[in-house]
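INTERNAL AUDIT FORM
Audit reference: QA-55
Scope: verify that the stored structure record matches its stored sequence.
Auditor: D.O.
Record contents follow.
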Amino acid sequence: MNYKFVLIDRSNGNDEAEWILTPPVVAGRCPTADITISDESISRRHCQFFLDPYGSLAVRDLGSKNGIYVDERRVEKTVVSPGTEVRIGRITLRLELTDEEIDDDSNDVVDILDLDETQPMKIIDVDLEIGAPPDDVL
């Protein structure tokens, strides 16, 4: 049995992305994460979904800045069941059991900016002299 991890867009309630995977599964911003979500509220290795010694699906925080929430309660580690929604940063994942096969493309990066309105670029004004040493070297 595999698990389907469904990213939910809270602005419209639609399912925006899904991954079909077998635990253990790491979710985060890092490109090597099993579930890669490009959003600044998510740590590089935010959390891990795994099977506990009794075979139940559980989730644990991997030291993230913004934590993980199950039923709007911040947790470090807890057992979760199909239908549970887990919030990591500002992103919500719904967990489902599935007989579907694992999708080879399931580790595609989801860029949250693609789901929201376009964000303006940050403009930085830098005054540099090429080839000149920094002031503190002189």
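Auditor finding: record pair retrieved intact. Residues 112-126 have pLDDT under 50 and may be disordered.
Action required: none
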